[in-house]
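Subject: Interface between my chains keeps coming out wrong

I've been trying for a while to get a sensible model of this assembly. When I model each chain on its own everything looks fine, but I need the whole thing in one frame so I can look at the contacts. Pasting all components below, labels as-is. Any help appreciated, I'm running out of ideas.
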Amino acid sequence: MAQLRNKQVILKDYVSGFPKESDMNIVDSTITLKLPQGSNDVLLKNLYLSCDPFMRNLMNKPQGPPNPLSYTPQSVIAGFGVSKVLESGDPNYKECDLVWGFSKWEEYSLVPSTQILFKIEHTDVPLSYYTGILGMPGLTAYAGFFELGSPKKGENVFVSAASGAVGQLVGQFAKLTGCYVVGSAGSKDKVNLLKNKFGFDGGFNYKEEPDLNAALKRHFPEGIDIYFENVGGKTLDAVLPNMRVHGRIPACGMISQYNLTQPEGVTNLAHVVYKRIRMEGFNTADFYHLYPKFLDFILPHIREGKIVYVEDIVEGLENGPAALIGLYGGRNVGKQVVVVAHE
Amino acid sequence: MAQLRNKQVILKDYVSGFPKESDMNIVDSTITLKLPQGSNDVLLKNLYLSCDPFMRNLMNKPQGPPNPLSYTPQSVIAGFGVSKVLESGDPNYKECDLVWGFSKWEEYSLVPSTQILFKIEHTDVPLSYYTGILGMPGLTAYAGFFELGSPKKGENVFVSAASGAVGQLVGQFAKLTGCYVVGSAGSKDKVNLLKNKFGFDGGFNYKEEPDLNAALKRHFPEGIDIYFENVGGKTLDAVLPNMRVHGRIPACGMISQYNLTQPEGVTNLAHVVYKRIRMEGFNTADFYHLYPKFLDFILPHIREGKIVYVEDIVEGLENGPAALIGLYGGRNVGKQVVVVAHE
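Reply #2:
Try treating it as a single job with all components included. I did that and got this:
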């Protein structure tokens, strides 16, 4: 049986502090494109790989109870992706099926079929969308905003990392709900996107605001009902005193803290008591049962152009490490995707 | 009409930092024990006054939107209390009714009847209980633990300020629910109370633990499902990494922070995301509709001796300021009550 080159992204060692491109290696491995006899696994050709902030945490040396997803030094890293089934030992999948789920950063992957989350049924939209608006980040925005945020028409919504994979959707969902929505992002161009592309009512560049509290007061003179939390740290600390009574904080991520060996202290938590705030961390894995309902909601909006999605696409697995690292410095504009193969 | 002496506790000025007894004055005012003609108010004889941590916040110079309860310099302070109705302009109350609600720190008070929360119907239990187990703190423990905590049999519960007005009840509710419960308190005697009086499975003196994280790991090798938050700051920071997935943190108060001009920073909030924790501040005022249900639950337990309650009672309004200040240094053992008059 012929062996094929299988380019891979390997984590050299556990990472402490800010990750660097050199923490990863590109290696050429080989693979036989044939399922081992009797295997129930699925052989995938990876098409699009997703760069997601949570991947940073998988690079840490595990402390306490092990995370089953944590990366192992000298092994291929893993993440969400869109793949084509080459061969399946699980009767639920067959050759040429398109799927999305948890795959590996390599050209071809042999994975347990349980790592496939969903078969892709709708292909009149860009396939890369299944790493973003139609994948985990889309469901994240949907579950976090609607299920945890419990938004009501006329409420005031603040989103951090607002032009990112999740944030740009939260803003658009907020507008569809009749909310006032303002986002923060890390460049003038991103702030322009918020207002001109995604329909936010306002936005600010947090890097150019000497006083985040003042920026929030300027945009929310009457306070914030829902803060969709993507960054943590200083932004969260500035938000807390600006929350309204019975405010909600769906805590999707705290990307500003992931690379710090000593996280920043949040001093304004007493406002959680004073304002009766509900702050709730969540993991999209707890909401996969909503995926069909989510698709019914979002597909028509995409087709009618009522919801847009900005992707930052790089070509080639060899450019994956730089793209992934770029997330933590905010280099990406919109959802960061790596193309491994177009089909 | 004869005028009567009306002893009062006056706040001298707004307080910054740790409050002192000398921030308050005891003065002799006078009052005519007759409702003004046409008034809808209620004239009360105050019997028991409640010392509650939140009162510290009312002493602050108001910043931002005013709190209608905030104290005014040179005026009588206010708080929860048990009172006897002397005369009522509201037909819902009549002479000799016993009531509990928001009253003032003085012998006699003329208050709008809306400040009365409930008429006291059950007097086979100590009347002072309506400042504690049968009053706001009791309902606080009930709503916070059962409504926000959603406890399940077998879960692990941690309570801070565990021998206090609310904490001692949370621990007993946890045991009634079949949970494992450990509390922290600020003296050896209080920790003994937890175990010997309230039936906690364990407890520790946070002042004698060099490493709160280690203390929690010792008592909760498998982690914490519910943290009933009364103190904030360092304790909260140590708790967060010890929470289990889908843990709940009803945030009742953060007494350790109330007297700090610069609050402590909480660095471990990313665990809210990692562990999908729900942290929720609450105010008992949102749960008064549960009070009848709460009484149905708790009165039989009190009468059968299945729930006990420890009070720290001082005699005389003139000793009120010291009792109130004592809360913030943890001088009280159990619910701090001030007796103004026995009937």
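Reply #3:
Confirming on my end. The interface with chain B takes residues 57, 64, 232, 236, 241, 251-254, 257-258, 262-283, 286 of chain A (CB under 8 Å).
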